[in-house]
């Protein structure tokens, strides 16, 4: 009998084992027309970092694919940093570091 591998977080590319804080990210924010649209499962800390970095408008307009999220300079740096931590690593994510869009 084979077991299914753990899903992979599309931002940090680490596995998401059972029991690790996780959440669904709407690739197009619900408030911008993404209700019922595609979602991706990711670590909760990765999801929080996305929303601390980008506005709903930026997410809808430009950063609406996993690759686009990984290409964002701040998120790329975060992904490199978090990739060195275990999958269940949690830390406080700073509040927004940018002006409202």
TrEMBL record:
Top-level taxonomic group: Bacteria
PANTHER family recorded: HNH DOMAIN-CONTAINING PROTEIN, TUDOR DOMAIN-CONTAINING PROTEIN
Protein name: HNH endonuclease
Organism classification: Bacteria, Pseudomonadati, Pseudomonadota, Alphaproteobacteria, Rhodobacterales
